[in-house]
Amino acid sequence: MAIDDLIAEISGGLGEETHISDWQKIDQYMINAFADVTQDHQGSMLTLIELRKNHLSKGQ
Predict the structure, then answer these.
(1) Is residue 31 packed enough to be buried (19+ CB in 10 Å), middle (13-18) or exposed (0-12)?
(2) What is the pLDDT of residues 1-60, one digit of tens each?
């Protein structure tokens, strides 16, 4: 497929839903696995436990 054809095909679908999937449960294992794959183990990736503590401490 030529690049012009690909651009035309993609442009023709702008604003339309192309795929809707079910919600996925993201657990700490998946977060850790993502950090491993991307080699991003910085503190900016909060654990689910930390997120829950922050959420509860704000009375939410």
Answers:
(1) middle
(2) 699 998 988 888 888 888 888 998 888 888 888 888 888 877 666 676 677 777 777 765
Identify residue 58 by its one-letter amino acid code: K
Q: How many CA atoms lie within 13 A of 44 on its CB side?
A: 4
State the Cα–Cα distance between residues 60 and 58, nearest whole angstrom.
6
What's the distance, Cα to Cα, between the start and end of the chain in Å? 51
pTM above 0.85, yes or no: no
d(CA 46, CA 49): 8
Q: How far apart are CA 54 and CA 6, in angstroms?
A: 45
